[in-house]
Amino acid sequence: MKRPSFDSKLVWVAFWCGCMALAGGIGYVSGRASPGSMSALTVRQMPPFEVYLSEHSFSEIENTKDKLQALVTEFLTAVRVDHYPSASSPAAIPPSANPSYAVEPGRAIKELERGIEQFKGTEQEMTLIRELLVLLNVQKLPSRWLDVYLAALYTHPTDDLIGRYAKDALAISDPLGRRAEVVSGFDLLRRIPLFFAAKAQIQEALAGANLARLNSSPLANANSARSSAAN
Prior knowledge:
Elements lengths: L5 H28 L23 H27 L21 H14 L5 H15 L3 H14 L4 H5 L1 H11 L2 H12 L6 H19 L2 H13 L1
């Protein structure tokens, strides 16, 4: 039996490609012509946002938030129990107790850092950052405290924690010679074209810190001494 030549194969391929292109063109034209098709809609006729939502969308989002909150609470409770002296269960920790992490504070710091990485990008991340800042302060680790605070400032600038600890950040940064880092972060935050509570808190912290520095300057001390001598 004679095998088809290469040219005849090309003819058949071209024929089938033509048929497929014709069928596709007919489908495309009929699709555009159909009143209910998306292709037939103009920009002004685009369907409303609700079309893309299922009736369970918002409840699913809330459920996800609830699950994340439950997970971070479980994680934090486990860490506290593990490092709370004489505690064998969550019930053994007094409700008003400030976590001391007296057992192995170094390991507790690493565990909280690991948790922060796991919850990165969520609201629950700030819960663990707050816990870590408390622990670093108790352990007298100011430089690490400032590192964590500044990282949170740049990743979660509008969070309440940033404004709440603004005065502490300025007070901690001065002895470390890192005030410029904090002020630079505050300046960036103040340029955000939105209103949030941290802006006012940061402004208040800066004003108070500047006044304190002015009062402690050599000139202010000299004026105070002259005033005392005159009296």
